[in-house]
Amino acid sequence: MKLSIVTINRNNAEGLRKTIESVVAQTLDDFEYIVIDGASTDGSVDVIRQYEDRISYWVSEPDKGIYNAMNKGIARAKGEYLLFLNSGDYLVDKNVLVNVVAYELKDDIVYGEQNCIKNNVVHKGVYIEPQYLTFLTYLSATLPHQSTFIKRELFDQIGLYNEKNKIVSDWEWFAVALFRYNVSLIHIKEVIACYDLNGISNDKEMENLHQKEKNDCLYRNFPRLMKDVEVYNRLYNKYYNIPKVIRAFYNRLHGGKEK
After folding, report:
1. pLDDT tens digits for 123-166?
2. Strands 31-37 and 57-60
3. Fold adopted by 3-223
């Protein structure tokens, strides 16, 4: 078995149905599907039961948050690669998994493209190629976990998701994997999933917590690099404090347009 798909859910029956339907419709036969529900009370369990003959394992019980639920999925997964497709997100068509397996996956992390959905409008996302993914570029970027296949064995080597965070533990895990463990990475030209931008990590009220958790992650994992990051941030802020006319002139010199 090459792939394990893990879906976590809590009280999102409508989104869960969309996710499950996209997975069970796949033309690939050899994969497992795991659903971890956080003791939902909105009918989510009824949705799961409608499809349980196509689900390898599911449970509905209280959990300690998003990353505790994802870690439960990891513990149950038997595939060589894991994909986390949470409720509300869905695979773009029925041939996604067949197309991914055709790449004969070998690298530690394999990521594709994803479409983003906001207020029922689909926006195409394009992600940076591995050769340009540096520590500094990653500070304001990430890998799209809904479209990223991770070798199962990496969680034994690196560890599970940090359950103390509420919204950035996948970002932290990728940062450690990429810049401490130097895992191999490949980008494939396939649109894998549609990502629901109405989730917690895109909640405006959570922006301050999001930034605080990111900073805590960086100082915890890369303390010797953070002095350089502080200098970078000061220069970045200084550049954007330059009067608008000078900034526009700078942009024209470099072939860009004023923003």
Report:
1. 887 788 898 888 888 888 889 999 999 999 999 999 999 999 99
2. parallel
3. Spore Coat Polysaccharide Biosynthesis Protein SpsA; Chain A (3.90.550)
What are the b/e assignments for 220-234, b being 16+ CB within 10 Å?
A: eebeeeeeebeeeee
Q: pTM to 2 decimals?
A: 0.87
Structure tokens that stand for 58 in this block? 């599911």
What's the distance, CA 89 to chain centroid? 11
Domain residue ranges of the chain, discontinuous segments joined by +:
3-223, 224-259
What angle separates helix 207-221 from helix 226-240, to the nearest 10 degrees? 140
CB distance 3 to 83 below 8 Å = yes
Phi and psi angles of residue 174, each rounded to the nearest 5 degrees, phi first: -65, -40
CA–CA dist 128, 197 (Å, integer) = 19
Distance (Å, whole) CA 96 – CA 184: 22
Closest-CA residue to 151 (of 81, 249, 101): 81
